[in-house]
Amino acid sequence: MKSKVTMVIRLLLGFVFFASGIVGLFNLVPPPPNLPEALQTFNNGLMASVYFMPFLKAVETICGLLLLINFFVPLALVVLAPIVINIFLVHAFLAPEGLILAVVLGAFMIYLSFFAEPYKNVIKQLFKPKT
């Protein structure tokens, strides 16, 4: 039963990041016009860097695909961790209406990283002190 829960959560997380990455890379959906002003300023700053948003969306696409095909899952989780933290902070401070989705993404990441076999054993190795 637990492995099915792990598989469903991995696939959901993979789909969210793969789809988000594809949509962002190919500008398939325009940004909503009614974003809070602080979030618009934040997005404009990221877009002004020219390279950052395509890089971010490429990373999301690749890591989402890795989760979907169950390949290098611990690596994908480690790479996605700062992205999920930033998603949470953006929604906590700039756009609270999306906070529930950010919390769900965070919960999925925590579950897969620290509670799901076989990924937890690999991730926990990162937190062991060197001897």
Number of helices: 6
Provide the low-confidence segments as ranges: none
How many runs of DSSP E, i.e. beta strands?
0
Element order: H for helix, E for strand: HHHHHH
The percentage of residues in β strands lies in: under 5%
Structural class: mainly alpha
Helix content: over 70%
Spatial separation of the terminal alpha carbons = 37 Å
Keywords: Acyltransferase, Membrane, Transferase, Transmembrane, Transmembrane helix
Transmembrane segments: 7-29, 75-93, 99-116
InterPro entries: DoxX
Main location: membrane
Architecture blueprint of SSEs:
Blueprint: H1 2-25, H2 37-48, H3 52-69, H4 73-93, H5 99-114, H6 119-125
Helix pairs in contact: 1-3, 1-5, 3-4, 4-5
Give a brief description.
This protein has 131 residues and is mainly α. The protein contains 6 helices and no strands. It is globular.
Pick out its properties:
131 residues, mainly alpha
Describe the structure.
The protein is 75% helix and 0% strand. The chain has 131 residues and is mostly helical. It has one domain. Helix 3 crosses helix 4. The protein starts with a helix and ends in a 6-residue tail after the last helix. The chain crosses the membrane at residues 7-29, 75-93, 99-116. This is Acyltransferase. Keywords: Acyltransferase, Membrane, Transferase, Transmembrane, Transmembrane helix. One of its GO terms (molecular function) is acyltransferase activity.
